[in-house]
Structure of 5-formyltetrahydrofolate cyclo-ligase:
Amino acid sequence: MPLSDPSNAEKKQKLRLEALARRAAMDPIARVEASLALAGYCEQLELHDGATVAGFWPIRDEIDPRPLLDALRAKGHQLCLPVVSEPHLVFRAFGRETAFEPAGFGTQAPGPEAEEVRPDVLLMPLAAFDTSGNRIGYGKGHYDTAIAALEKTGPLLCIGLAFCAQEMSDIPAEPHDKPLNGILTETGFRRFQHIEAS
């Protein structure tokens, strides 16, 4: 992997902190309403029938994907959640009866008895995004390594979930950065131009 430009790393950290401060400053009721609004846009995602969708368990003041995941389950999609593992994230399937356990970083996930699956779609948390589909994560690189591994085994759709308040005008992108195929916020779904027709 190419070395990161130190100046880009500094810019990203500044943008990350600014976006997270905006998110933290949101009214709690507005945050709940925005999370509920995501479910109303599930048709806009245009996922293929039976796609396996990886969500995430929300932490701190992240947008809550669970109403959206419930709507996707109702449409027949298999759901899974990420678990931190080596050499990259693994994804465990879950249903209404699944028992969850702590999975690090304040998240919950199905236990080791749950089936490991390969997602077709990643619904991803993030700190910030821009109008070109560039994203800033939390700096741990878990999704970057997972995306690189998953793309070796087939097509993968990467969709960020965030509040509109997390949008920045321009995020510096480096050669190893994987842009999002789309972003879903409380105002709807935006597909980015670099997406290739499947």
